[in-house]
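Database export, one record per block. Field names are fixed; values are copied verbatim from the stored entry.
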Amino acid sequence: MPLEYNRILLKLSGESLAGKSGYGIDPDILASIAGSVKEVHTMVAKIGIVIGGGNIFRGLSKQRFVDRVYADYMGMLATVINALALQGNLEALGLHCRVLSAIEVNGVVEPFIRSRAVKHLEKGRVVIFAGGTGNPFFTTDTAAALRAMEIGADVLIKATRVDGIYNKDPEVSSDAILFKEIDYDQVLTEDLKFMDATAISLCRDNNLEIRVINISDPKTLKKAIEDEAIGSIVRRRR
């Protein structure tokens, strides 16, 4: 079967690693995600991953005891922890993997340099981007959009706990409606909060397709790469 995408950027939320507890890292979920990445790597050799840190520390929600700027930097450091955990699991499966961080953690991960990231990808290594954008006030969604464009990704795949983009939270509302395909402008107009507006605008302005899938099923990522009709797609109306 021909593949829809040859170079992908996978966005993982920190919460996707936590499981039902909502905090920390669930070893079984981490192993499942690593297994999904390995399966796809046999099909698509060029995979970048941006990972969040909300399972450890969410900057925006912690401002009550620390300034927003400090809180955001703490959140960026949390993404480094998650990146290292994922790197360890991927390497245990035999994949070559590098973590590149927008905030320097010398001796632990490499600093983010675009040319270095592209070189790693060309050599078939999985590249995990940590540290967000390296700046406060920007989410890891925005970091994912930036990194996707910097590495020339064909698609930004956002992995979530639900089956795609809904008109309201499906975990709260049983009558939520799933959008199979939707335009960037409709997402922004209706304020559908699966991803922040800055990230969506960047993807729209650079015509970068977004796919939203449920990472709970370990086969979903492979199905998305093979362009099966799962999840939701954000792109310009055809």
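Remark 1: Residues 84 and 99 are 7 Å apart (CA to CA).
Remark 2: The radius of gyration is 17 Å.
End of record.
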